[in-house]
Amino acid sequence: MAEGANAVEAALSGGTVYELFVTERAAAQHAGLLDAAREAGVAVSPITDRAADGLSETVTPQGIVAVCALLDRPLEEAVTPAAKLVVVLVDVADPGNAGTVIRVADAAGADAVVLAGDTVDPHNGKCVRAAAGSLFHLPIARVRDVPAALAACSAAGLRTFAAHGYADAELDRVDLAAPTAWVFGNEAHGLPPDVLDRTDLAIRIPLYGRAESLNLATAAAVCVYTSAMAARR
Amino acid sequence: MAEGANAVEAALSGGTVYELFVTERAAAQHAGLLDAAREAGVAVSPITDRAADGLSETVTPQGIVAVCALLDRPLEEAVTPAAKLVVVLVDVADPGNAGTVIRVADAAGADAVVLAGDTVDPHNGKCVRAAAGSLFHLPIARVRDVPAALAACSAAGLRTFAAHGYADAELDRVDLAAPTAWVFGNEAHGLPPDVLDRTDLAIRIPLYGRAESLNLATAAAVCVYTSAMAARR
């Protein structure tokens, strides 16, 4: 379910929407969206405020919810030889973090996001909200098998870079212009040694102050954007 | 109040701690911290698990809480002519965002963070937790008067750069090596026009994909780290 006007708009433009539910008030506010939905052949059904509360996972429902097709694509469709930038999440536990990183990947022009290992379900409502529509903007693949995800990136011609707090190589010293897959690990535990071993290079973000680390979403933003800007320099 | 072993450790090393409260279990787990506190002349008081629950703002209290001095410093002590990188938050509403940006600023080696206008109180528990100790690592100033905050940065020899989604200048095209104060606005509304007018340059993060924006914390991470790395190149 995509909830709120922004998410519904993104779902209509990038995904498959089965049905749209709107309250009377939301219908008046978002007439353009409703027209777009009807033009796309999507059924639009009125609901009461109380029903909207029931469908919503948020405290202040916007009164507009789309029921969408599942989002994930096969790995080989998401990661192709045309890809220049891919983000791989390994065992990421927090849906808000996963959604935020998907939004960052989209903003940075990534070609795909691969949710590998035990990473959270991208259909989780918190992930959908944190992604702010980006779930519908780029292909998302889900793969249990982490080595298979990394192998697919290598086969597509991408270097695999592991973000790792104790790596020798520093982000500002590495050539980031070539096609890259960034690999990020669990919030608490990082990447397991066997995954680190399978990547081409482990890289750390230099810590110039006294903080011991960055959180996952800000670390991913720094790594992915530094690559995206370097590739266009 | 600094809650949890990491925050207490940071408070002991960087701030003024009045008293430390620990449960029996936490005392056994963190004997080294308790020794450090006693050596620093801090009173250590045992509390029950139930009292720890009462003091805690989290669902799973760690059983160790420090009562600390208020953190903020006068603007002129925080922003000095020696400063090379300063982060200014204007009207930032979410304490988790403020704390995350303070952690990013610390990691990037910033000299100070200025919380200007209606920005949240850094002593808010969510801010303290998101900052993960960084509140004690660099000076934090609180200033109602936003023009005064910007004037102090200019007087200290910093260029003031406003992060703004509709700016003409793109982050990857600007020379970021000189001393800089980055200015970030409210999560929903961004920076007001009169604040934009008072900064030297408005800069946007290039959006290479289809996302319409980044959230505050990830945008700040990209801007502040791009500056920090450029200054050391």
- In CATH's first tier, which class of the largest domain in chain A applies? Alpha Beta
Structural class of chain A: alpha/beta
* Uncertain runs of chain A: none
Biggest interface, which chains?
A-B, 41 and 41 residues
DSSP strand tally of chain A: 11
Strand content of chain A: 15-25%
**Oligomerization:** homodimer
Number of helices of chain A: 10
CATH topology of the largest domain in chain A: Alpha/beta knot
Note the overall shape of chain A: elongated
Tally of separate domains of chain A: 2
CATH superfamily of the largest domain in chain A: SPOUT methyltransferase, trefoil knot domain
Tell me, rounded to a whole number, the average pLDDT of chain A.
Answer: 94
Q: In what order do the strands lie side by side in the largest sheet of chain A? A: 7-6-5-10-8-11-9
The CATH architecture of the largest domain in chain A: 3-Layer(aba) Sandwich
Series of H and E elements of chain A: EHEHHEHEHEHEHEHEEEHEH
Description:
Two copies of one chain form a homodimer. Chain A is α/β, with parallel strands linked by helices and 233 residues long. Chain A has two domains: 2-68, 2-Layer Sandwich (60s Ribosomal Protein L30, Chain: A); 75-231, SPOUT methyltransferase, trefoil knot domain (Alpha/beta knot). In chain A, 38% of the residues lie in helices and 21% in strands. The first copy, chain A, is built from ten helices and eleven strands. In chain A, the strands form two sheets. The first copy, chain A, has a seven-stranded parallel beta sheet, sandwiched between helices. In chain A, strands 1-4-2-3 form a four-stranded mixed beta sheet. The longest helix of chain A is centred in the C-terminal third of the chain and has 16 residues, at 216-231. Chain A is elongated. The first copy, chain A, starts with a strand and ends with a helix. At the A-B interface, helix 6 and helix 10 of A face helix 6 and helix 10 of B. Chains A, B: InterPro entries: Alpha/beta_knot_MTases, Ribosomal_eL30-like_sf, rRNA_Methyltransferase, SpoU_MeTrfase, SpoU_subst-bd, tRNA_m1G_MTases_N. Chains A, B: Belongs to the class IV-like SAM-binding methyltransferase superfamily. RNA methyltransferase TrmH family. Chains A, B: One of its GO terms (cellular component) is cytoplasm. Chains A, B: Pfam families: SpoU_methylase, SpoU_sub_bind.
